[in-house]
Structure formats: C-alpha cells, structure tokens
Amino acid sequence: MTRISNRMAAMTGRMNAFRTGLLALLAAGLATGALAQGPVPPAPQVRPKPAAPAPPAPDPAFEAARTAFEALPEAERQGLQDALVWTGDYNGVTTGAFGKRSFEGIQTYQTRTGTAPTGLLTPPERAALKRAAEEARRAARFKVQPDPASGVVVGVPEALLPRKSAIPGGTRWQSADGRVTLDTKSFSQGETGLDALFERATAAMPGRKVTYKLKKPDFIVITAETAGGRSYIRYAEGPQGIRGFTFAYDRALADTVDRLVIAVANTFSPFPEAAPAAAAPATATGPTPRAPAPGMAPAPALPPLPGAQAEARPAATGLLLGGGRVLTAASALEACAAPRIGGAAARIERRDAAGSLALLSAEGLPGGGAPPLRTEPVSEGEALLVLGAQAKGRPSVAPAIGAAEGVNAPLQPGAGGAPVLDRSGRLAGLVARFPAAPRLIAGVMPPTRYAVVPGKAVADFLAESGVPAGAGARPARDAATTLGRAAAPVLGAVVAITCAR
Predict the structure, then answer these.
(1) β-strand 325-329 against 170-174: which pairing, if any?
(2) d(CA 212, CA 367)
(3) How far is Cα 483 from Cα 406, in angstroms, rounded to an integer?
(4) CA–CA separation, 124 vs 280, rounded Å?
C-alpha cells in the first residue's frame, strides 16, 4: 500500500507540473498573440496601376511636310496625290488631305528619284512628279469616260484594255490576251440589293481568298485573290439603282496593274448625273478636272441636257438670326458677288475686323435665332457636329471631332459658314472655309480638317452688330447625347446661300 501511495503521489506531482507548464505556455501565447492569431498570412501586394503611355511626340518632319502641303491649293494637292498614284508611290484616295500615306508616298518617290526623303516636295520636285505621272498616264492612254450601258463614269487604260464589248447591264474592256478585264455593271431599282451582292462576292469558294471587304449602307468594296489572279469589286447604291465595276487581272501583272486599279477606282462615279458641272476647264498638262460624284474621287460631269436648268447649289451655309439677318463665314462669299437666300437677293451689311464673319440681310426670311453660344474653345478630340445647307430638304448633319483651331469633319462645298455645335447644342463656331472641290469616296465623304471661326469671335461680332444671341450652357438635363437631339433645335435656322450667275 505504501508503494502504491508513493506511485500515486509521483503521478500527481507530474500532472501538477504539466498543468503548471501548460498554463505558463498559454499565458505566453496570449501575451504575444501567437495562439490567438495563428499563422499570419502574407499581406496582399497592391501593384500600382501602370501609368498611361504618353502620347507620341509630334514628328517635326511630318508636321513641316503637312503644313507645306496643306498650304497648296486643293486642286494642286489632289493633283500631286494623283501623280503619286501614277508613279506607283501612293495607293490611297486623292482627296487632297495629307496623312501618313501621303507623307510616306512622297518619301518613297524622293528616295526612288535620288533626292532627300523629307516628305516635303519642292517646286522643282512637284513639276518633275507631274511630268512623270503625265508620261505614265499617256502611255496607258488613260481616258475617263462615260459608259452609257451602265450609266457610270470611269477611267479606262485603253492601251492595256483595247477590246470593248457589251455585256448585260454594262460594258467589258479586256486586254488582247484576256488576262485583264474591267467590267461595268448596273442593276435597276429592286432588281437586287447590296446585301445580296456582298454575300455573293464574299462567299467562301475553293481556292479563293477574300483579302478585304467593306460594307456600308450605300456601297460595298471587296478584294480577293486566287492562285493565279486578283479582283477588285465596287458597287454603290442610289435612286437609280445599283452600279459598279469589277477589275480582274492575272496576279503576275500586279506590279503594273495594281496602280491602274487605284487610278480607275479614283475616277469611278456611279451616278454622275447627280453631279454639278466641273469648276474649271481641263488643262493640257494635268489630270482632267472632275466634278463631284460618289466615287473614290471627283469624276467628270456629264453636260446638262438641252433646255435643262442646273439646280442652284449652296455656295455657303448661313444661320438665321431673326429680323431678316443671316450670319455666315466671310470667306465663303469671296467668289460670290451677288448672294441670294431663299430666292431673294441678299446684301452684306457688315464684316468683322478680322474679315472672318459676315452679316447678310434679305427680305422675306423666316424668323430664327442663334443657339446658345459657347465662348470657351473646343478641346482636341471633342465630339461635335456640323450642320451644312443643302439645295433641297433639311440640312445635313455631319459628326465632327475637335482639332487644333478647327474640326475634322466630312464636309462638302457649301459648308463654308456652317454652324459647329457641341453635343449640348451650343454654337461653338462656324466653318471658316469649304473645299473647292467635292470629296466623295463611293458616296461617303471622308473627314478632313477645316478651320473654324470660334464661338468667342462669333459672340463678339454679334454683340458689336447689336444682334441678340443666346449665351451659356443648357441645363444638364437638356444636354444632348445624340447628333439628332443636338441638331434638332437649330435645323430650322440653317439656310443655303447661293450665288446669282
């Protein structure tokens, strides 16, 4: 018994010692927080957001070349681009607008001719370029001509395509060996649709690859390749139906024919009967001046029918201010000695000191009133819209983007003086000048940069003239979010200014 009692006492002592040690450990753990918290997970690393890349610095050489190019008359700019097409150095549209393709095309031409590739053509270089282009054009016997069978106007390289024959709805020009073919084609209204033509031209076919396709509401463009050939297809839709052309050729001839495809496309006019007469006579040393038409570039206008009177087209756009007064850009009236508004003779009451704005008056004009004026400058890249007068119907509403001292917008002749609105409907300025020749690419007007008389100058001029004008921003709840909502209150105040002959 004594032995058992001693053993029990020993066990009790060990248990007391264990209990004491456990309590001490717990106390230490609570003090340090180790037992309470357990293993502490690593804190998540917050990575800073990468800074937005700084916009690339402007290229001084490009800017210098652009400034020099844009200082040239518009016909000269288009002529130089057309010349670069014929020398094989440019594969874009001849709109007269200077961009990366024009810059690189000039550099390519300069490199090929052994001059410094500055992208800026000197007067002797321009003359040499035009001579080279004219030689190539004459060698191809390139003739821009109407095609009565389809109704289109198109340029034909007759040296390459001497064979001409009739096909249903159009005409076929073909090379002597049959390796190159240019077909014009027309469909009457309701005979087919652009959707059907597009689906047919882009349908998957063994051995044929569609390399480019573009579909717009009123035109389509498709290019394709096979093992042995290439093709370019273009159709446009108008009130007279659908008209277009197909250029197909042996790919072994691509070095020669590719530039001709561009030249043909740049002269294509599907509906020339809707175009006004050419502004200038043809010259012996340059491309034939062409009147506007919905092709890749202006094309020759057909002469008016005997006894038909040409419709008066807007020389400028005006903004009704009420009281028989109309505001427009003064530069739009430089070649208009006898302006008319709504059939009534108009007179110029006054111009601003800078010669950028003009106030006209005429009898019998409806009421009007300037929209709220915006005096702060337009910011780069800001969404805007331009309202241009048309000969008939409501004014056109063109989307625009704010640019340095102007806007980028798809405008046409007659847009000089057109009001520029921000998306809340405030008048941010007037288009200062309009293009001397229309620019239509298969019925689409490409955006180009135009100078703008700013809203602050408009506000000062109206104040000096004693003409009431709206001011300030509209309430936020009335801010427009679409072109239509911003333009709607001003459409009735936009008028066409024509010139008496």
Answers:
(1) unpaired
(2) 50
(3) 19
(4) 24
Distance CA 353, CA 374 (A): 20
Domains of the chain: 64-139 (no CATH), 142-274 (3.40.1000.10), 316-499 (2.40.10.120)
CA distance 44 to 37: 18
CB 416 within 8 Å of CB 332: yes
Q: Which residue has the tokens 């704010």?
A: 402
Tell me the whole-structure pTM to 2 decimals.
Answer: 0.49
Q: Residue 44: what pLDDT?
A: 57
The mean per-residue pLDDT over the stretch 138-158 comes to 94
Question: Would you say 94 and 85 are in contact if contact means Cβ atoms under 8 Å apart?
Answer: yes
Q: Which of 60-74, 108-122, 162-176, 467-481 has the lowest average pLDDT?
A: 467-481
Q: Torsion angle, CA of 486/489/493/494, rounded to 10 degrees?
A: 30
**Residue 337 binned pLDDT confidence (cut-offs 50, 70, 90):** confident
Q: What is the CA radius of gyration of the chain?
A: 35
Distance, CA of 466 to CA of 245 (rounded, Å): 56
**pLDDT at position 187:** 95
- Judge whether residue 309 has pLDDT over 60: no
Q: Structure tokens of 384?
A: 């805007």
C-alpha separations of 368 from 20, 319, 470, 471 in Å: 99, 8, 12, 15
Angle at alpha carbon of residue 75, lines to 71 and 79, rounded to 5°: 100
